[in-house]
Structure formats: C-alpha cells, structure tokens
Amino acid sequence: MTNSTNKSVKPKLRPRNLTHWTAVGFGSGLAPKAPGTFGSLAAMPLVMLMLQLPLWGYLALTILACLIGNYLCGQTADDFGYHDHPAIVWDEFAGMMVTFIAIPLTWQNLVLGFVLFRIFDILKPWPIRWLDRHVHGGFGIMVDDLLAGAMAWLGLMLLQGYLH
C-alpha cells in the first residue's frame, strides 16, 4: 500500500461501487482542494437530519456509521492502493456525527461544532497525531477523526456550560 505522504496519487475510484462512493462522501471527497473540509460540510445535512431523532436513534446511527466506516475506509484504501487517501472522507462524516452527540440543533452550535472539528482534525493534537501515524487499516483511518470529533464535542459541551 502506498504511503500517505504523496497526496497527488489519483484514486482508482469505481463510480458504480457503493463502497467507494460512500467512502468518498458521495463525491465530496473528490474536491481538488481541502477534501476533508468538503467532506465535513457534506456531512452537515445528514447530522442535521439525525439531530431530529431521539438521542438513542442518533447514537445508534453514529455507532453504525463508525462500524461500517471501518469497512468502507479500509476496503476503499485497499482498492485505491493508498492508506487514508485524502478523497476518503467517510471518517469525517463519522467524526462530525460524534461532534454533535446530544448537542442542541442551533445554527450557532452547527458552526461552532464544524469549526472545532476541523481545528482538531487538521492540527491533530496528541493523541490524535500519534493514532493517525501508528494505527492502520480501516480503524486507523477512522480513529483519528472519531477522537477529533470527541474533542470537538467536549469543546462544545464546555462552551455551553453542560460540563463544569
């Protein structure tokens, strides 16, 4: 598998392959610049719909997205011959879902959660960076974004005074 430092490798995307299409965020990860940001933006309508569900429903779908994501991201990376290709953004979808667990649906929360998630995903503070470099396969692709989502969630909770 190709090292993740060469971002110019073109993915061997098969448009009719549902696994590929989902892993690239229904096309959002194919943006030529900032695919992770576009993937996170593309996740927002799904998150907004999910926030209409009771908490147990939101959690169930988030867990399902995370479990399925291990397969989607791992299989697509294998097919592309490139670990964690920038076009693979399902991990951003799952990370955004984690960010908004039990968060009230307001435009302010949506903007703040998006910004916090992108900051943690881009800067990768410890232990996110360590996990990103040392954990491989589908879980390795997913885990850093899930932790970035958890840190963004914690930031949202702290800023809203839910945690003291």
Automatic annotation (TrEMBL):
Q: Where are the membrane-spanning stretches?
A: 53-73, 93-117, 138-163
Q: Give the reaction(s) catalysed.
A: a 1,2-diacyl-sn-glycero-3-phospho-(1'-sn-glycero-3'-phosphate) + H2O = a 1,2-diacyl-sn-glycero-3-phospho-(1'-sn-glycerol) + phosphate
Domain called YutG/PgpA: residue spans: 22-159
Q: Look up the record and name the pathway of this protein.
A: Phospholipid metabolism; phosphatidylglycerol biosynthesis; phosphatidylglycerol from CDP-diacylglycerol: step 2/2
Q: Please give the cofactor(s) recorded in the UniProt entry for this protein.
A: Mg(2+)
Q: Would I find Magnesium among this entry's keywords?
A: yes
MF terms from GO for this chain are:
metal ion binding; phosphatidylglycerophosphatase activity
Q: Which Pfam families match?
A: PgpA
- Output the GO biological process annotations, alphabetical, semicolon-separated: phosphatidylglycerol biosynthetic process; phospholipid catabolic process
Membrane topology, from the record = Multi-pass membrane protein
Please provide, in alphabetical order, the Gene Ontology terms of the cellular component aspect for this entry. plasma membrane
Q: What EC number(s) would the UniProt record show?
A: 3.1.3.27
Subcellular location(s) per record: Cell inner membrane
Keywords from the UniProt entry: Cell inner membrane, Cell membrane, Hydrolase, Lipid degradation, Lipid metabolism, Magnesium, Membrane, Metal-binding, Phospholipid degradation, Phospholipid metabolism, Transmembrane, Transmembrane helix
The record's annotation in CDD domains points to: PgpA (cd06971)
Q: What role does this protein play?
A: Lipid phosphatase which dephosphorylates phosphatidylglycerophosphate (PGP) to phosphatidylglycerol (PG).
Check the record and name the PANTHER family matching this protein. Answer: PHOSPHATIDYLGLYCEROPHOSPHATASE A (PTHR36305)
Q: Mind telling me what this protein is named?
A: Phosphatidylglycerophosphatase A
Organism of derivation: Neiella marina
- What are the leading ranks of the lineage? Bacteria, Pseudomonadati, Pseudomonadota, Gammaproteobacteria, Alteromonadales
